[in-house]
Structures are given as structure tokens and as C-alpha cells.
Design a protein that fits this description.
Number of helices: 8
Order of helices and strands: EEEEHEEHEEHEHEHHEHEEEH
Structural class: alpha+beta
Strand content: 15-25%
Strand order of the largest sheet: 1-13-12-3-2
Shape: flat
Largest sheet: 5 strands, antiparallel
Length: about 450
């Protein structure tokens, strides 16, 4: 849960009365490839890269931008956008862009892509999951949504004066029945016996007191689908108004999935009830055992008190004998102490001589190792030079092949352009010839008509 200063314009209302809204988010992966660095002592500023990335996508802004991983070849960032509509434009803007950083002559290349880690359930997922199961009963078909990482404080009853800071089940149902009528709802955090059944060895966790998980079973399939579709890729936004009418907004990333454990099936509900009764019976038996043990403990304490008094009397009797033995032991200790001192002196001298011998041997081995390391360093240097020359030749040959291919493609384009121009010229000539033929035919017709008219005139005369 974080306090947010940047809020998307695409927020939707979940429950305005409780100040709960849904804000979409979209994450992208940005990889900045590091060019070959010449020289020693140059460092890359992640902060400068992040500022350049923010400036490159203006007027769009990152709601969150952080370093994901760093290697010698690249620096990977994870960016979060406020709107999904800006995702494509941001990826197109950043993909292939060159960054210039201060202190580096070569440019840094950027590759941007979608973050594929945000895998939310789809209709195909739950249909394939429940395909082989009997879907005649509730809980054993796609009708239950599991929502995790919900902040407890946002769903508390404000009129409740208890300090347990736990969510109110009625408020949770009131908020999530927006998607459809709810048949059943279960919050494991509120079920003391359910926690002990599922996690018998669970220890205290501070996070469990802040967030909670809820299983929501809808009466209709449409409500289940609508809940998953509207909650996926969303953050929960909470608007809190202070006494001074100042609004404070907080965001929480929730985890949404469909129930794969038949948690709210009638079989599992009966099982949990049976386990609850069993645990209650065990609690009663434990209380009765505790009372019996307390009574036994009191009897044992009386017996122990009597035994302690008897032992105290025996200790007083043996005290004088122990004092005599202590004096004899003290004298024996002094004698043994002197013997140990003499032995320690002899051991120190022997260890000192051995230390000098080992130091001389270690010095000789160090010199031999340095000579071997120098020889290996020269060999590795020659191999590296050969490898670099081979790689440079390979790169040059690849570059020449690309250049030749480009030249051939350019020649082909020119030939095609010349052919198209010739075709256009021929078509124009053919059209001109046809127009001339049609004009000649018309002239012949006119002449024939004139000749026939002259003959008819002559004949009449």
C-alpha cells in the first residue's frame, strides 16, 4: 500500500460511499543496451537514464519507474503507466530510440515491450480448469473469485471501537456485490479455527494483520465474469478525507484469481464446520486437562517442599566433609597448574619454530604461483587478441554482405522503375495511334459521303 500523488483519469467507481475506486495500471519493460565502453573508470548514472526516459515519452508520464536488473550488456527498467491507451504509443516512442549520456560518445539503444508477468485469469483458463469436473454444485464451477492483498483498514467498520483492526464482512459484501448478487463470502482472517486448520504451525506475521484475502461466490456466472474482468490489471484506490477536508489517496495492488480449491463448495464448508467443532472439543478437553495438571502440580509442589527440607538437612551434614575435600583439591590444583605452565612453554617454543618453517614454505609457494600466473596472463592476452581480430573480421564480412544486398535491391528497384516508365510511354504511343486511326476513318467517311452526294447531283442534271 502506497500513498499516490499521480492518479489516472480512467478510474472507475467501486463504492463511492466507502471511498473505494479502481485505477488501471499498465507495466512495460524497458531495456537500455550499453555500448562498448572505451576507457576505465566510467560509471553509468541510472538516475540520468530515468530522467531521459521520462522526457522521451512526454506528455505521457510514468506513475512509477524503477531499476529491475543491471548487467554488463544492459540496464533493465520497469515502468508503470497511468493509462492503458498510452501503452502502444510509449512502446513505439521508446523502441529503437538512441540515448546520449554525458561522458559517453556512443549512443545507448532502447528496446521497450509489454511486461508479460501480469498474468490474469481468462475465460479459457477457468473453462479448461473446470472442463473435467462436475459443475452441478456451487463452488465446483466458475463462480468464486479470490481477491488477495486487500488492506484491512479500508474495510473496517468506523463505528467499531475495538482495536483488532480487522475487516468487516458486511462492508466487504457491500463493496463487491456491485458485480452481482453474492451467494457466499468467506474471509479466512476472521475465522480463527480456519487459520489453525490450514496453517497449524503458522507464526505471527505483521503483513497478515495489514492485508487479508477473501473468497466471494456469486449466484450467477455473469457476476463472476464481470468481477474478474473489471478487477484484473487494476489497483484499489482509497480516498480518505481528513477533518480539514483534505483528501488523501492511497493505492494497493490487489491479486485477483478464480478459486481452484473448491473453497466454498458445500463439501468443504461442511468439512470446515466439522473441523471447527472438532477443534472446539479439543479446546474443552485441553482446558480440563489443564485443570487436572494444575491440581497435580500443587500436590507435586507440596511433595517437593518436603523433599527440599530433607535434602537441606542432608546438605548441612555433608558440608563439613566437602570443605575438607575442597582443601585437598586446591592443593592438587596448584600442583597441576605448575605442570601445565611448563608444558605450555614447551608447546609455544615448538609452535614458534613450526611457524617460521611454514612461513618460509608459503613464501616459496607464493613466488612460484606468481610466476605461473604471469605466464598464464600472457597466454590469455594473446588468445584474447586473436579472438578480437577474428570477431572484427566476421563483423566486417557481415557488413559487406549487407551492403551488397542493399546495392542489389537498389538496382532491382531502378530496373522496375525503368520498366514502368517504358510501359507508360508505349501505352501513350498506342493511344495516340488509335486516335489517329479513328480520325483517318472519319475523314474517309466524310469523303465517301461527299462523293455520293456529287454523283446524285450529276445524275439529276
Amino acid at each position: 500500500m502506497v500513498t499516490s500523488k499521480k492518479v489516472s483519469d480512467e478510474i472507475t467507481v467501486l463504492n463511492e460511499q466507502k471511498g473505494l475506486y479502481l485505477q488501471p495500471y499498465c507495466r512495460i519493460v524497458i531495456k537500455v543496451h550499453i555500448p562498448e565502453i572505451k576507457g576505465v573508470g566510467k560509471s553509468i548514472s541510472n538516475w540520468e537514464i530515468m530522467e531521459k526516459l521520462r522526457a522521451a515519452i512526454q506528455p505521457v508520464e510514468f506513475s512509477q519507474l524503477k531499476v529491475d536488473s543491471i548487467t554488463r550488456e544492459m540496464v533493465a527498467f520497469e515502468g508503470e503507466l497511468l493509462t492503458r491507451q498510452s501503452k502502444k504509443s510509449v512502446i513505439q516512442t521508446l523502441n529503437g530510440k538512441q540515448l546520449k549520456l554525458s561522458g559517453f560518445s556512443s549512443a545507448f539503444t532502447i528496446n521497450a515491450s509489454e511486461n508479460k508477468n501480469d498474468n490474469y485469469p481468462t475465460q479459457q483458463d477457468w473453462e479448461s480448469f473446470f472442463a473435467d469436473k462436475d459443475q452441478s454444485e456451487f463452488g465446483e464451477r466458475p463462480d468464486t473469485v479470490v481477491i488477495d492483498n486487500l488492506p484491512c483498514y479500508w474495510f473496517m467498520d468506523t463505528n467499531d471501537n475495538s482495536n483488532d483492526h480487522k475487516p468487516n464482512q458486511d462492508i466487504v459484501e457491500q463493496v463487491f456485490n456491485k458485480f452481482g448478487p453474492i451467494r457466499c463470502l468467506h474471509i479466512p482472517l476472521l475465522d480463527q479455527y480456519h487459520k489453525s486448520i490450514d496453517n497449524p504451525f503458522q507464526t505471527f506475521s505483521f503483513n497478515n494483520q495489514l492485508n487479508f484475502k477473501v473468497f466471494i461466490q456469486y449466484q450467477e456466472y455473469q457476476g463472476f465474469c464481470q468481477a474478474i474482468q473489471e478487477l484484473k490489471c487494476m489497483k484499489l484506490l482509497y480516498r480518505l478525507t481528513n477533518q480539514n477536508s483534505q483528501k488523501k489517496e492511497m493505492l494497493a495492488k490487489i491479486v485477483v484469481d478464480f478459486d481452484k480449491t473448491a473453497h466454498l463448495s458445500s463439501k468443504n464448508i461442511r468439512k470446515r464446520r466439522f473441523e471447527k467443532l472438532k477443534l472446539q472439543q479439543l479446546e474443552k478437553e485441553a482446558e480440563e486437562k489443564a485443570k487436572l495438571e494444575q491440581q497435580k502440580q500443587q500436590q507435586l509442589q507440596k511433595q517437593q517442599e518436603d523433599e527440599r527440607k530433607r535434602l537441606e538437612h542432608e546438605r548441612m551434614q555433608h558440608k563439613l566433609e566437602q570443605e575438607k575435600r575442597a582443601k585437598e583439591k586446591q592443593q592438587e590444583k596448584i600442583r597441576l597448574k605448575n605442570q601445565r605452565k611448563q608444558r605450555r612453554k614447551e608447546k609455544r617454543q615448538a609452535l614458534y619454530n613450526l611457524k617460521l618453517q611454514l612461513q618460509s614454505e608459503l613464501e616459496q609457494r607464493r613466488q612460484n604461483a606468481e610466476a605461473k600466473f604471469a605466464a598464464l596472463h600472457l597466454q590469455n592476452k594473446d588468445r584474447a587478441k586473436k579472438l578480437i581480430t577474428y570477431l572484427l573480421d566476421d563483423i566486417a564480412s557481415l557488413h559487406m554482405e549487407k551492403v551488397n544486398k542493399r546495392k542489389q535491391q537498389e538496382q532491382k528497384r531502378k530496373q522496375l522503375a525503368d520498366e514502368k516508365a517504358l510501359r507508360r510511354r508505349l501505352i501513350k504511343k498506342i493511344k495516340k495511334q488509335e486516335s489517329r486511326k479513328s480520325a483517318l476513318k472519319r475523314e474517309l467517311l466524310y469523303r465517301q459521303i461527299d462523293a455520293t452526294s456529287l454523283k446524285s447531283v450529276v445524275v439529276k442534271k
